Amino acid sequence: QVQLVESGGDLVQAGNSLRLSCAASGRVFSTYDIGWFRQAPGKEREFVAGTSITWRGRPTYADSVEGRFTISRDNAKNTVYLQMNSLKPEDTAVYFCAAREGNKYKYWGQGTQVTVSS
Fold first, then answer.
1. Taking a C-beta distance cutoff of 8 angstroms, is the pair 91, 82 a contact?
2. What is the pLDDT of residue 31?
3. What count of Cα atoms within 13 Å lies in the side-chain half-sphere of residue 69?
4. What pLDDT, on the 0 to 100 scale, is given for residue 57?
5. For residue 96, what pLDDT is reported?
6. Strands 46-51 and 18-26: what pairing?
7. Hey, is 55 helix, strand or coil?
8. Which ranges of the chain have pLDDT less than 50?
9. Rounded distance, CA 117 to CA 11, Å?
10. Residues near 108 by beta carbon (within 8 Å), at least 6 away in sequence
11. CA angle (74 as vertex; 71, 75 as ends), nearest 5
């Protein structure tokens, strides 16, 4: 299995940027697809971005963040990043990273809070 720890969340003004990190330990990190998810108060958790080893790391994004967020991974550092630009108040949420095993995201971090003020 793999353990995940997110960091980088903060309070920022709309229009600014943040970079979240997801550090992994345990089983070989490079064998996992990694996704970023978020959950806002009163809402269900939603997919934000993902990087797949099957698709040779080609990233996928939710429509709401396409063009503003970028996911990347550094297997040498066992870390996946989420660069978030042009942040909006509706991006406010707890952000989680997760590792997929089989057909579901099985391993989750504890989350990091992102708050965007208007």
1. no
2. 83
3. 27
4. 63
5. 98
6. unpaired
7. coil
8. none
9. 7
10. 4, 96, 97, 98
11. 125
Is the Cα dihedral 27, 32, 36, 41 positive or negative? Answer: negative
The Cα–Cα gap between 34 and 108 comes to 10
Helix or strand or coil: residue 16? coil
Give the pLDDT score at 106.
94
Amino acid occupying residue 74: D
| Amino acid residing at 108 | W
Q: Which residue has the tokens 């995940």?
A: 4
Round to whole Å and give the CA distance between 118 and 115. Answer: 10
Cα separation, 103 vs 116, in Å, equals 33
Q: Which two tokens stand for residue 92?
A: 């406010």
Quickly list DSSP for the chain.
-EEEEEE---EEETT--EEEEEEEEES-GGGSEEEEEEE-TTS--EEEEEE-TTTTT-EEE-TTTTTTEEEEEEGGGTEEEEEE-S--GGG-EEEEEEEEETTEEEEE---EEEEEE-
Those residues whose C-beta lies under 8 Å from the C-beta of residue 81, and which sit 6 or more positions away, are 19, 20, 21, 22, 71, 72, 73, 74
pLDDT tens-digit map of 95-113: 999 999 888 999 999 999 9
